[in-house]
Amino acid sequence: MSFDRLIEKIIKTQNPTVVGLDPKLDYVPEYVKKKAFKKYGKTLKGASKAILEFNKGIIDEICDIVPAIKPQAAYYEMYGYEGVKTLSKTISYAQKKGMFVITDAKRNDIGATMEAYATAHLGSVMVDDEEITPFGTDALTVNGYLGTDGIEPLLKLCRENDKGIFVLVKTSNKSSGELQDLKIGDKTVYETMGDMCEKWGATAPGKLGYSSVGAVVGATYPEQLAEMRAKLPNTFFLVPGYGAQGGGAEGVSKAFDANGLGAVVNSSRAVMCAYKKEECEETEYARAARRECIRMKEDILSYLPKISL
Amino acid sequence: MSFDRLIEKIIKTQNPTVVGLDPKLDYVPEYVKKKAFKKYGKTLKGASKAILEFNKGIIDEICDIVPAIKPQAAYYEMYGYEGVKTLSKTISYAQKKGMFVITDAKRNDIGATMEAYATAHLGSVMVDDEEITPFGTDALTVNGYLGTDGIEPLLKLCRENDKGIFVLVKTSNKSSGELQDLKIGDKTVYETMGDMCEKWGATAPGKLGYSSVGAVVGATYPEQLAEMRAKLPNTFFLVPGYGAQGGGAEGVSKAFDANGLGAVVNSSRAVMCAYKKEECEETEYARAARRECIRMKEDILSYLPKISL
Q: What share of residues in chain B are helix, strand, coil (percent, to 5)?
């Protein structure tokens, strides 16, 4: 199953982190933008080409030490269909470089339509007698508000195509508690969603202890990370909110099991904008990203046991 | 505000319905596909061009009698970025023909990222000193699981750019109750979400009684439609599930207020595939869609008062 592949990459790199590629144009060095604008104009296409170039530079520099990237669909859609083309090219480029790709799109819909999303991101579509893979990512974030029939089409592809999903359970933002912390009987909404993940996961188990159904649990709520880790033994966690959003390494360590596995921690802006923080040359942006990845890895590993099965 | 524009179109056409454009390639007549495949091959581009042609044909035939279309993003993403280009072209084509466009994408994320989605679908983005509109739809469906800071960026654009959102409250699918019907104290999750819609809407009120924050409430649950209509006086409803999913006209009539306003009912497959049900010539597909729109309108109006302010 899909998260077995991710876990193997994490063990190999001894790095339980994922780099979020959420590239606003502001993050892209001037020289990269200038080149793209010269060729394609100050257009959505020009912006999208600049972002693709930027992403490729980072992927080239980190693919040997970071197991996965997580492009956030919103930042690509922001540049229209040209941006979505860059999303697609970023996914395939990272996969060619041996990385695991999590598309952070938080898709959700009822069964029949969710099948279309599942096909789009994790499957393949028939065009007459030709079978074509539209985005072909490795894992997708999804929102479980609609219940089982909105998740079932994804589980099918998890089993058949070796894919994974991360269901939103407890998000990292300030107002996440407005709905997620409310009590349904003696359980909160997020605990209820967590239980649904375990249930869905049981139909798509992995070989290494974690099913193909993961959960998003924000680094900004360490006590909930610990609680969820204990309660959801077969659910792999995607942990956003480290760094820029305020989650620290000690806090995120609560998301891991006794083998240093069970979670992958995301950092986006701190990696993409490392060259700004370092105040180094713009042309150093990808190497600065690599340095930040190493710093983050060491920070998180200092609170974990050696990662092994 | 945005739903004022929709309400005015509904009154003018005396038609409180929206046509869902969720075009699987199977729905597209052979002659349309053949032409596109000949020019672009059996590729994602070929499929996407065929779907755009199909959509335009339907829009041309219905734009004088139907106030709005609702393209479902999943069915475009299924054909990769070429499909997303067709989504974009469909939106602008329908708007040029005077229609209101609701992009059904159920987007959701935390504040900073939701800003990117808001920009993508309802706003405009800066590319250096050029301001460009990526998708520019009129209203977007969203999922409120993440709470207020995932909705706030949208409210800003509702106010500034005359846009609207529909928040998922009670969806039309079978398993919608797994989470949505659970009790938080004496209220269900969907009632809690409904209350949040009224609260968010109060910050973006309209002139005609309905705010810019609407709610998705499925036609398959008429008792909840009635209950929500009474409890959420300023929340405009988008009602999916009429027809193919089993919701009848009498049931959906519960979503409307005493003026025959307050809701818009969606039909997708029955309109797109009307030519198959009629067993007429394929080249008649758009006129068959028009006939189905008239049938649906008359069916629903038979349970409503004359639509007026």
A: 50, 15, 30
- Over residues A110-134, the mean pLDDT reads 96
B258, two tokens: 């005493």
| A290 phi/psi in degrees, rounded to 5 | -60, -45
A69: closest CA among A281, A266, A301?
A266
Contact A103, A166 (CB under 8 A): no
- The count of other CB atoms within 10 Å of the CB of residue A187 is 13
- Interface confidence (ipTM) of the complex: 0.96
How far is residue A205's CA from residue A3's CA, in Å, rounded to a whole number? 10
Report the pLDDT value the prediction gives residue A270, as an integer from 0 to 100: 95
DSSP state of B247: B
Does the pLDDT at position B241 exceed 90? no
**Is the Cβ–Cβ distance between B287 and B61 less than 8 Å?**
yes
Query: How far are the Cα atoms of A41, B198, B232 from residue A239, in angstroms, in the given order?
Result: 38, 32, 36
Residue A167 near residue A216 (C-beta atoms within 8 A): yes
Please, which pLDDT band fits residue A101 given cuts at 50, 70 and 90? very high
**CA-CA-CA-CA dihedral for B230, B231, B233, B239, to nearest 10:** -70
Give the separation between CA A256 and CA A217, rounded to whole angstroms: 12
Dist. CA B107–CA B151, nearest whole Å: 10
- Amino acid type, B181: D
Please list every residue in chain B whose beta carbon sits closer than 8 Å to the beta carbon of residue A107. Answer: 74, 106
**How remote is the C-alpha of B153 from its chain's centroid?**
20
Beta-carbon separation of B46 and A143 below 8 A: no
At B38-59, the pLDDT tens digits run: 999 999 999 999 999 999 999 9
Contact A120 B88 (CB under 8 A): no
Q: pLDDT tens digit string along A294-307?
A: 999 999 999 999 99
Q: Which positions in chain A touch B109 (Cβ < 8 Å)?
A: 72, 74, 106
**Tokens found for residue B280:** 């007429």
Q: What is the pLDDT of residues A42-95, one digit of tens each?
A: 999 999 999 999 999 999 999 999 999 999 999 999 999 999 999 999 999 999
Query: CB within 8 A of B25, min separation 6: which ones?
Result: A126, A127, A128, B33, B47, B50, B51, B79
DSSP track, B98-120: T-EEEEEEEE---HHHHHHHHHH
Q: Tell which of B52, B75, B81 to mutate to test the A interface (max A CBs under 10 Å).
A: B81
Kindly report the pTM of this predicted structure: 0.96
Q: Where are the beta strands (DSSP E) in B96-195?
A: 100-107, 125-127, 130-132, 139-142, 164-170, 183-184, 187-188
